[in-house]
Specification:
The protein has 417 residues and is of the alpha+beta class. 69% of the residues lie in helices and 13% in strands. The chain has a 4-stranded antiparallel beta sheet with strand order 1-2-3-4, with no helix packed on it.
Length: 417
Amino acid sequence: MGAFLVFLLLSFTALGLSLDEAINLAVEKHPLIKQEKAFLQYQKYDYYTTFGNFFPAFGVNYTYSRYNRIEPEDYFSRGVSFRFDWTVYNSGQNIILNRVKKALYRSKQFGFQETVLDLVFQVKKTYYQVCADREIVKVRQTQLKAAETIYKMAEKKLKLGLVTKADYLQAKVRYETVRYQLETAVNNYKKSVAQLNSLIGMPLDWETEVEEGLLDRIGKERLIPFQQIEKLAFKRPVFNQYRKELKAAQLQVLQTKLSYTPSVFMSFSLNRDYNSLYRTKDSYTITRIGLSWTIFDGLQRYYSYLASKEKTRYYRHQIRELERQIKLNLYRYYLDLQSAYRNLQVARTLLQEAEQNYKQALGEYRVGKGDIISLVSAESSLAGARETLVQSLLTIALTKAMLEREIGVKHLPQEGN
């Protein structure tokens, strides 16, 4: 197992950990999932315990008594009894309890699926952030090279007396600023990787590599129509979870009604007793069949009935409110995604213009036609345009992840599928 883990870690470093692999690792290793699985097992066994109420109970009792200093002699007695008890009908409570526990267990199963979807969303969000932070590091590295080129060019021109010291200092300040920004970007990237490692069960300082070009691929995807997304959302596990809770509440209404009916029970016992004083052996059986009926207990059962009725109304309104919230959130995310795609086109156009502007400013400065302020400004604008493009791609990826979470799927279906 240890060798396999080492191989797995090395393969992640060499080939890059895919998003699906990260999700699978998180679902397998995250403590929250294990915790929820344990609680799910608890509820299953708790549901199974209710089946015992339908079976009779069988037991054995043995007693031994010793009597000393009693005239005319000391003596003892002993007895053994075999007892059979069975509640044949308990005002329907056993049946309803079994069905309520089953509904709650099924509700927890769907709730567990929602917990998995929450974790999947967290992994996606962190994974996309790692991708973006890595691209920002690359942008800053490219930015540093450009700033260093400008700085050395200004330094050389200063020595030749072609520029003022102010130009040289301007280039140097820009160079040092970019070095600082690069260090910040590297630190942010390491923190994002550590957060991803925490989710997937890896050492925090492990240099996990993620997919190359994932944000670009996501930026090229196209969405299905909103109406199709809306239909998918209403199949989320949480709806089944709430429906099972509603069913449990409806069963509790029936439970309060059945409490007005009588209970029927029966018992049978076989008893054998022996007394040493009288040398008697007694053997006898007792058979009982009884009916218990609570005719009046104040208004407790009546108010229990009213409370359970209100509980069913609560769950019905909860489902309607959930539908309303999801529909609104989906529409908002969908609008955000459309806006993010438009902003992506603007960011790409801005990058093209910034690249042309930088090339023009760099060429003019080399031949002595341009000034350092224009060049530094053009380089800064180019770096900003690159970061804007990365941020635009990240916004699309995160908004899609929120849509997927709201719908309750791991991946959005693509147009034409």
